[in-house]
Amino acid sequence: MSILNRCVSLLLIFLVLALLPLCFCAVSRRFTKVNNEIFDEWGICRTRAWGRDGFFQICEDSFRPVIVFESLGKFRDVAYELGRKFAERYHDRYRLAEAIFYFIRDHIRYLTDREQFGVKEYAQNADELATKLLERGIAYGDCEDYAVLLAVMYKAAGFRVAIVLAPGHAAVLLYLPDYKRANVIWTFRGERGWVWVEATGRNNPFGWTPSRFIGRKLLAYEIVDEPLALDVKPKYLGVAHVAVVGGGRVRFGYLPSFLTLLFLMWLLRSVVRFVHVLRRRYWY
Fold this sequence. Notes:
Shape: globular
Structural class: alpha+beta
């Protein structure tokens, strides 16, 4: 990301700080501890992802990221406003998608819940994380915190977005047809054109799917405006899988570095052997 774009991002932070109200209604102020579990004012368990009242409502074959809806609909607030401000600044869809990603990647640091909150699991909603980011210039979270904030901001910016679950991991799928810089393209609910968005790694590029998830079928849930309620059945759930790109091969520029190194070593050795053969045949 260029220095100019970084400066624009920092300027955007201060602009949003100046415009946002001091009282954030979508940040849960009331927490209740029941049997060593923490519940927010909407009755969502912040220390558990599974179950009807878990923050992702994970069941045996489905999930619904209910915590996202604490920052959408009538609860739109800090995170949604931040995404909307980015949409006002960037009019090219690709640049807008990249700008939101790099802003979050560069200003939020990955930190486990054990290190930050002293518990094995604790989910922050998008407004809580965005508020910390805007107040301090930096915030901390783990994979589901990144995913929830990105989902709300992308939704506010006018994108179709889904949260995708892998074993022990959460990320975002963004519908961005014809985007050329992704290493692979995903198909979700019969639509090809989704790209993987994961800001947890400090060097992660936009649209980069980790190699361990390529070739796997994962559950994903598209984020739309729906009620913040625990009894709503999952309606926008589907299986995401990698679409065929270039005959099913991962693009060369995104091959794992180890495989790339092996290929370059093989190529160099082949060139040396070829030159050696030419020298023996024509120069001696």
